[in-house]
Amino acid sequence: MAASPKHRDHGGSAMSVRMFRRGDRDQLTDLVNGHAAAVVPGVSASVNTVVTSMERRPEEFVTDPWVGERVTLVAEEYGRIAAAAHLLCYRTDREVGEELRGTGAVEWFLFRPGAEEPAGTLMTACLAHLERRRVRARYAGGELPVPGVCGVPDQWPHIRAAYERAGFRHTGHVEIVLLARVADLPAPSGVHPEEIRRTVGGIGTLLTAHRDGDPVGHLELDTTLDRPERRSRAGGIADICDLDATDDTVLDRLLGHGRDWLEQCGADRLLAYTTPDEADETERLLRRGFRELTRTARGWEHRPA
Fold first, then answer.
1. Cα 26–Cα 28–Cα 32 angle in degrees, nearest 5
2. What pTM was computed for the model?
3. What Cα–Cα distance (Å) separates residue 177 from each residue in 39, 128, 149?
């Protein structure tokens, strides 16, 4: 994509929208980490993680192979990256899921409060790029390559406002992101009728509670979120990728066993996710050491008035 014409203010400074260049990587990483740190305490991504995520997202093993084009644009002002966006265009062949086939997405869009002018110019360029690709629908989000940050969290009111000014509307769901210190989870307890078996799960490590030989609940933990190239602090972070335990005693047993396993893994924090419709589930987790970090709006679609 050719760089857009330069825009000059009355002081003669230049602002332009252009393709991401390798020399932008440190400033872009700072922008990513600044937004991530306002949502989940202590998380950040390395330069390598950020740049690699713009080329491929292996954790999105279903949808990532459907992407036909990836473009990262930046708005530069006074020689500084004032805003940045990552765009995806999905292929149109039948191998692509019908929902995403032939669509385009602003995978993430970032700028610091106060940089609304370059952000607006960048957004215009993003929509123009998707228009040239003749995508049949335009989506947006905030899926950063760090644990627990996706959609548009409450801590990003400036991003929400930019999306809404551009004609994006929240059409998806709200997700509640919870965080617990592993040390605050229920402690592993003594003899109980439930036997906990540890096996490989679909995503992470699966802990299944059995009573009289029958499964009565399970907890699946992903302890691979903090890959070595992402770590910025001692300890690590994991998340609950699946939980099914309607019995409180079974839930306590699973979380206690999970705590012991996470401590052996070197993880000191655990993420969990619910929705506003799951008030009882949220309350059960809050009583067991979790606290609410944020509510994030997932699923934005371009629907200009």
1. 115
2. 0.89
3. 9, 33, 9
Structural domain boundaries of the chain? 7-166, 179-294
Kindly report, residue by residue over 60-100, the tens digit of the pLDDT: 889 999 999 999 999 999 889 999 999 999 999 999 999 99
Q: Which residues pair with 179 in a beta bridge?
A: 271, 291
CATH architecture of 7-166: 3-Layer(aba) Sandwich (3.40)
Q: How confident is the model at residue 58 (pLDDT cuts 50, 70, 90)?
A: confident
CATH topology of domain 179-294: Aminopeptidase (3.40.630)
Q: Which contacts of 218-223 are long-range, i.e. CB under 8 A and separated by 24 or more positions?
A: 218/242, 218/243, 218/244, 218/245, 218/254, 219/243, 219/245, 219/254, 219/255, 219/257, 219/258, 221/258, 221/261, 221/262, 221/270, 223/262, 223/265, 223/267
pLDDT tens-digit map of 158-178: 999 999 999 999 999 999 999
